[in-house]
């Protein structure tokens, strides 16, 4: 795979193909489809964190005018007991209303279906649920003896005895529980017509929904039609399915012929669709006096659920980041009476680069080194984990280019050195990384010539706001040698050829490579002058280099942080990221992806924290007034740049995937800058005024 | 949300009578807080009396140099009004520091005063809350306390009043004009809200059916240089952890002749810092005096385990705000501007 095509449309920044439709409000989202015979679902959620539903008294609810049915485990349709689910699905999470067991507070224990939204919600408030309550346990700690290692620790050498150990940095770093909150909440409209099920679903992959729903509902996948051409954001929680989709399917089974719809409230988003586990990262770095690492030891304690397992891979990114002869990376999971965690933008890397990148900053200070220089001294020449060569690794270039653009050279070599108008000012840096995840097999694309120069490109991919509509148009135009405006892309429907999930930043690499292959197949079969109606299809090609190289994208993030002398308030007037992520196909949408990731990283750094009240077992700050997400005023000067990186090994496009790397490292850069500003080291996110006030 | 009847009020006394006659009735103004509570099920009125069409939407000068702001004046209009900006810029600053542009366009002066606490337990029907359900218990007492009180709380309730505007009004000696079915009366804003005591379900001294028709600001020359400082986690669209509104007048010898300080985010009501005010009178208006004033007030503070960080914030809010006011009064630094407000 050493030939990449001379690009014309790729690398430029055409406007979003879907932009005008979204701006005009004509791009329909799942909840908005004009369907007939509507009915509305209102879930009833458990008010105990562990127990058993003994009885549901729905008499008052059923008396509300317009109520069609009240479902609970005694009367809900049965789901299939032996689901054939893909590895990313959690069967227990999807077994909605199949038993009376309550595994976490907020779990769906009943649901009202009614003619109107208002009636459904009014009636849901009048459902009385009687429980047998059991003691619950939601306390995450790294001191628990019942924490389990889900796999053997990765070990090379001996970190405990690593030498030289002239300098040792050993601390626990923690990241907060976070909840996915795309603008469009999880939404489903479901309709049974005989054995045929139609789902309008807010999802990162229509085919994954089809496969999963067919498996749990005992349906032939060919009879399930899933539609999602437009999705109002998906940061991971819309990858695996969660209880609401299963509930909507159940309600549609109970009311054949009706179109039942469910959109979660913001509050429900904090209970029903997963979350990013909090992490407690024990990091130990040993180095010689010149900052050359002799050992890297990272053990991350995370929470999983008693209902089903999901282990946030927070120790993973340290495996390949820096050179050191002695290494250990491991996880400890504590299973709690809590919802099942899930993906959230850059699962693993995002929380997992906080502790180690702050520890690297601490090491730099201990060695009296510039933190950029420290990272350069520990650049590996091969992947320290697999010993394979890197397909390309340009972290150093990102650090240099970022330093130049950010004005790093003027940074004071001491902390707490600069105060302006009552604000302590500091600069910080951290590295970013995200793997080039091998695209899952099974994607297929079709290209059809419609005549008059127009080509239609079809595959069932979901554009979750990333720009896939636009970038795939560019890829197809280039591969076909056709003008952009003559290429029509069709996405987001299971009637189109199968496409992999939008996840792991694989979308463009996976679908783009598939479209590229389909275009080559089309030209091979039909030549440059096809007849109208000519078609070709192709599957995602294998990557012949896939096993021979370690493949990662890299970045360097720089932050200026101001901490108010008197109040401790933390503000970030400047953020700058430089990324090396292979070829950038669309400069406009790529910039949005990087900036969006960095903004979400800023939000993680300063704000986001789901607060679990252990007495009750649920997240109590479950709205946007209390669960803060960065607002416009938090984001001042923010810049994303990239270096031109040729990587002939990753895929035919040379593109590494950019959806997630922007959020990786931001929080560490902010914490490191806050230290430079104040001399106060914050090892626990979010970084807030309480860390500094009075300090 | 439960079904409810809707009445469009014809006049203030009639609206007051309609609500007074029905314990389950409520006034509807901007709806930015009431409708949220109805969606959550925290409040379930069976009747809404819409007062938004009543003629209470003017900002008028009062004969003695004061200002009358109608209860229906939107927060964004009040903040932008030239007389507010020149005579009471601290009110403009407070208004602009609250909520978001969209909310300020809808929220009214009366409604802002009467918004209810955002204590997470008050808003969560699945947890006990004495304010929502008297006698059920206070979940915040041993729970999430970041936004909770450090002054004047009780074992039954540690919630805070969330308004920024009310803090400025309390400092400005503003009065609420209150209409009931029979008559009109005036209540100082600093005494409008209650401390929770044993009846946290009652936010204010108003009787059910009392309608706020206006807020009156007395003439106060030092108000022209008063300032509002809001300390919060997020740079905008966040409730105050601690806020301060302060005004000060210096005598010819440079000592403090008069002072007004009110704090937000610290109590069940806008907290008039009278101990700090008393400590300031006659003092030399130095940073040391401002710190001493803050300490005088803090002697009354009773923080919760989860919000001890608010004590240094109270100190910082009082000292930095007074410092800015003093600079303005002495003709240095920040003058009587219109405030940074929402960036």
Can you give a write-up of this model?
Chain A: Residues 1-14 have a biased composition (Low complexity). Chain A: Residues 139-157 have a biased composition (Basic and acidic residues). Chain A: GO terms for molecular function: iron ion binding; oxidoreductase activity. Chain A: Residues 1-24, 139-165 are annotated as: Disordered. The complex is a heterodimer of chains A (695) and B (343). In chain A, 23% of the residues lie in helices and 25% in strands. Chain A has 16 helices and 26 strands. A seven-stranded mixed sheet of chain A has the order 3-5-1-12-9-10-11. In chain A, helix 10 crosses helix 11 (371-377), helix 10 runs parallel beside helix 16 (666-678) and helix 15 crosses helix 16 (666-678). Chain A is globular. Mean pLDDT of chain A is 96; it is low at 1-6. With 343 residues, chain B is of the alpha+beta class. Chain B has a domain at 223-329: Enolase-like, domain 1 (2-Layer Sandwich). Helices cover 29% and strands 18% of the residues of chain B. Chain B is built from twelve helices and twelve strands. Chain B has helices spanning 12-20, 34-40, 75-80, 82-87, 89-96, 101-106, 109-114, 165-171, 189-192, 274-280, 287-298, 310-329, and strands at 5-8, 25-28, 47-50, 59-61, 67-70, 175-179, 184-188, 211-217, 227-231, 242-250, 256-264, 271-272. In chain B, the strands form three sheets. Chain B has a five-stranded antiparallel sheet with strand order 4-5-8-6-7. Chain B has a four-stranded antiparallel sheet with strand order 9-10-11-12, sandwiched between helices. In chain B, helix 11 (287-298) packs antiparallel against helix 12 (310-329). Chain B is globular. Residues 334-343 of chain B have low confidence and may be disordered. The A-B interface holds A 45, 47, 105, 118, 121-122, 125, 267, 422, 564, 566-569, 571, 606-607, 611, 613, 615-616, 618, 620-623, 625-626, 628, 630-634, 688-690, 693-694 and B 1-3, 40-41, 118, 120-121, 123-124, 126-127, 139, 142-144, 147, 231-239, 241, 309, 312-313, 315-317, 319-320, 342-343.
């Amino acid at each position: 795979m050493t030939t990449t095509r001379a690009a014309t449309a790729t690398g430029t920044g055409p406007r979003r193909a879907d932009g005008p439709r979204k701006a005009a409000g004509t791009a329909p989202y799942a909840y908005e489809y004009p369907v007939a015979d509507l009915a509305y679902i209102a879930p009833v959620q458990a008010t105990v964190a562990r127990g058993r539903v003994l009885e549901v008294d729905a008499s008052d609810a059923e008396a509300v005018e317009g109520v069609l049915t009240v479902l609970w485990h005694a009367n809900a349709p049965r789901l299939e007991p032996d689901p054939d689910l893909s590895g990313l699905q959690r069967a227990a999470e999807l077994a909605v209303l199949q038993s009376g067991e309550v595994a976490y507070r907020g779990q769906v224990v009943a649901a009202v279906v009614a003619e109107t939204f208002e009636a459904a919600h009014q009636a849901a408030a009048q459902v009385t649920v009687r429980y047998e309550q059991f003691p619950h346990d939601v306390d995450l700690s790294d001191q628990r003896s019942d924490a389990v290692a889900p796999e053997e620790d990765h070990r090379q050498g001996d970190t405990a005895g690593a030498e030289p150990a002239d300098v040792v940095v050993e601390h626990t770093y923690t990241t907060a529980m976070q909840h996915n909150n795309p603008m469009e909440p999880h939404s489903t409209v479901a309709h049974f017509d005989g054995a045929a099920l139609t789902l309008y679903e807010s999802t990162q992959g229509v085919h994954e929904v089809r496969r999963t729903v067919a498996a749990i509902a005992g349906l032939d996948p060919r009879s399930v039609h899933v539609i999602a051409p437009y999705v109002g954001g998906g940061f991971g929680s819309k990858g695996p399915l969660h209880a609401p989709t299963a509930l909507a399917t159940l309600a549609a089974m109970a009311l054949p012929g009706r179109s039942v719809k469910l959109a979660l409230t913001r509050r429900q988003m904090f209970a029903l669709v997963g979350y990013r586990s909090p992490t407690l990262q024990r990091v130990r770095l040993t180095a010689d006096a010149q900052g050359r690492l002799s050992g890297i030891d990272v053990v991350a304690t995370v929470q999983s659920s008693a209902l089903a397992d999901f282990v946030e891979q927070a120790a993973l990114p340290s495996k390949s980041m820096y050179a050191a002869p002695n290494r250990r990376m491991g996880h400890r999971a504590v299973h709690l009476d809590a919802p099942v965690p899930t993906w959230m933008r850059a699962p693993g890397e995002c929380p997992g680069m906080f502790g180690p990148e702050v520890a690297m900053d601490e090491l730099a200070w201990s060695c009296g080194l510039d933190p950029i220089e420290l990272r350069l001294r520990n650049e590996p020449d091969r992947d320290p984990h697999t010993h394979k060569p890197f397909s390309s690794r340009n972290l150093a270039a990102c650090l240099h280019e970022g330093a130049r653009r950010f004005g790093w050279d003027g940074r004071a070599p001491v902390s707490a050195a600069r105060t302006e108008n009552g604000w302590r000012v500091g600069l910080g840096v951290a590295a970013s990384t995200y793997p080039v995840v091998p695209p899952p097999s099974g994607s297929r694309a079709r290209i059809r010539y419609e005549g008059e120069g127009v080509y239609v490109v079809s595959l069932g991919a979901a554009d979750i706001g990333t720009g896939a509509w636009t970038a795939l148009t560019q890829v197809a135009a280039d591969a076909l040698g056709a003008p952009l405006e003559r290429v029509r892309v069709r996405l987001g429907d299971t009637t189109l050829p199968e496409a992999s999930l939008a996840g792991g930043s694989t979308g463009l690499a996976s679908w783009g490579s598939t479209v590229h292959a389909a275009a080559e197949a089309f030209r091979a079969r039909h030549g440059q002058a096809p007849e109208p109606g000519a078609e070709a299809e192709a599957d995602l090609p294998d990557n012949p280099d896939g096993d021979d190289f370690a493949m990662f994208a890299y970045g360097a993030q720089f932050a200026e942080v101001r901490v108010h002398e008197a109040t401790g308030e933390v503000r970030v007037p400047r953020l700058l990221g430089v990324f090396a992520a292979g070829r950038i196909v669309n400069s406009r949408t790529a910039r949005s992806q990087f900036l969006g990731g960095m903004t979400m990283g800023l939000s993680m750094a300063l704000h986001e924290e789901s607060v679990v009240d252990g007495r009750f077992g649920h997240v109590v700050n479950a709205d946007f007034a209390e669960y803060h997400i960065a607002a416009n005023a938090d984001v001042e000067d923010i810049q994303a740049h990239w270096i031109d990186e040729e990587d002939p090994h990753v895929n035919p496009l040379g593109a590494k995937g950019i959806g997630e790397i922007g959020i990786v490292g931001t929080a560490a850069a902010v914490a490191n800058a806050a230290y430079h500003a104040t001399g106060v080291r914050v090892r626990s996110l979010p970084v807030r005024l309480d860390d500094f006030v009075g300090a | 949300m439960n079904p409810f009847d809707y009445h469009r009020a014809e006049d203030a006394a009639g609206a007051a009578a309609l609500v007074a006659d029905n314990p389950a009735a409520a006034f509807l103004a901007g709806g930015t807080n009431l409708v949220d509570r109805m969606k959550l099920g925290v409040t379930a009125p069976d009747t809404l009396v819409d007062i938004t069409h009543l003629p209470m939407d003017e900002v008028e000068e009062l004969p003695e140099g004061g200002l009358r702001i109608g209860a229906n004046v939107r927060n964004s209009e009040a903040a932008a009004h030239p007389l507010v900006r020149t005579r009471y810029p601290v009110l403009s600053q407070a208004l602009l520091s609250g909520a978001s542009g969209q909310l300020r366009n809808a929220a009214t002066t009366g409604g802002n005063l009467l918004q209810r606490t955002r204590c997470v337990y008050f808003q969560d029907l699945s947890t006990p809350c004495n304010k929502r359900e008297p006698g059920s218990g206070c979940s915040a007492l041993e729970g999430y306390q970041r936004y909770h009180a450090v002054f004047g709380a009780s074992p039954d309730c540690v919630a805070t009043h969330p308004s920024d505007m009310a803090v400025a009004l309390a400092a400005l000696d503003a009065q609420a004009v209150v209409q009931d079915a029979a008559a009109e009366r005036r209540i100082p804003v600093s005494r409008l809200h209650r401390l929770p005591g044993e009846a946290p379900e009652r936010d204010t001294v108003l009787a059910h059916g009392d309608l706020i028709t206006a807020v009156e600001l007395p003439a106060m020359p030092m108000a022209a240089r008063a300032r509002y400082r809001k300390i919060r986690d997020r740079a905008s669209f966040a409730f105050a952890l601690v806020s301060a509104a302060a005004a000060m007048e210096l005598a010819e010898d440079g000592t403090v002749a008069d002072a007004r300080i009110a704090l937000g985010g610290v109590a069940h009501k806008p907290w008039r810092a009278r101990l700090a005010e008393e400590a300031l009178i006659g003092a030399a208006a130095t940073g040391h005096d401002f710190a001493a004033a803050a300490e005088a007030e803090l002697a009354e503070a009773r923080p919760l385990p989860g919000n001890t960080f608010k004590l240094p914030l109270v100190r910082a809010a009082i000292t930095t705000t007074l410092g800015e006011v003093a600079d303005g009064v002495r003709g240095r630094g920040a003058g009587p501007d219109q405030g940074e407000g929402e960036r």
